[in-house]
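User: Second chain of the day. Same drill as before.
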Amino acid sequence: MNINYSFIPWLRQGLATKISGDSGEGRATIDVHLKLNNTTISKTAEIYGPGDVLGINPDAIINTGPKAGTNNFEPNYLAYIEFYEEDFPWRYSPAIGDVEDNLKPWLHLIVLENVPGDESTYTFQSVTSGPLPTITLTSDYRDVIFPESGEAWPWAHVHADKDVDGIPQFIEDLKENPDISISRIICPQKLKSDTSYTAFLVPAFETGRLAGLGKDTTGVDTLKNSWTRNDPDIDSLSFPVYYQWNFATAEYGDFEALASKLEYGTPYGVGKRLMDISNPGFGIDTSNIISKTINFECVLRPLQFDHDVWPKRGNSLEYYYFIQAFQIYDLITQKTSDSNNQKYYRNLLKQVNKIIHLAKTAKPEEVLAKEAIEHIKTLTKERAPKNDKIVFFKNQIKLIKNDKIVFFKNQIKLIK
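Assistant: Same format as last time:
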């Protein structure tokens, strides 16, 4: 079953679709024409605007995101509020939709962080001299939580559960089934993790702000914004509240946010399994190959994957002692606790680790020998501490006087 959704930037119905201008004093105007016999009487009438609204019926609100009391809201989501009536966010807006099809709603949603005992950002008064509860912001906080005056329109839209083929047809569809869509206002503020918030629905026009504070709106520009960044007027920091609810965010985001934090890595051995090839059968002679094992490649492999090659023939005993020579690693590890020579031994340990890595790779022996020699040269550049019990590479790599261990330089020649 396929469900199609459509999003409409704004919607108006009724008299609001006939707005032709504004009175300049807080209300939008429409042109009214009355025809009596052969006489037409034309008048300009005002319609209700944000300055006439002193409250919102909570029944008009059908959902909030998150729901009130939620304590684990995903911090990478945005808070929102939804209304049953599709035209509600623009019903009392005195503005006219511009040529770019943008229309500012008469409501705006903000989300404020709750810090017990801290009034450095805002204060809330449930009982005031005006008709509505009030929040008073600091100037710095106001300039952060509100968008630029011309950027409020994108944060409201109509959500329809169907394909919309033109607004006139959509209006007709609503008459048949008013439940196919809702309106939504989103708060543009990015949330923090593990934080308590209160969301407030406030007026977006100055006439609505003043009316909600119980103040006179006479002479106020109809289209003036309820907030202005960097406005020095202290009175402009107070806003009436139409609706509010509390919630808190979780420490982490949703699954997508968590998945985006994953980093690519390849644990040792992924995509390979060590396989014994000392006696593979089928008449294959492995008596004189350098290594008796090879990595068997799995079906699932990392993006960056090195394929093993069949070991070349050579003196397997000498290859064995070539690996054994790097057991000096254990001796150097014990020496790193010597505080006087700690830096020297750490550097030595780093270089030997590189040699051990080379020895364990499946590179051709000739390349392995050349690279190992280069690292040994690096080891010999530094002077060993006096009375060093470790037999230093520069002088010999016999390690222990034992007829089974081949002198390292001769070993390299044998590998070549």
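Residues 25 and 219 are 5 Å apart (CA to CA).

User: Great, on to the next one.
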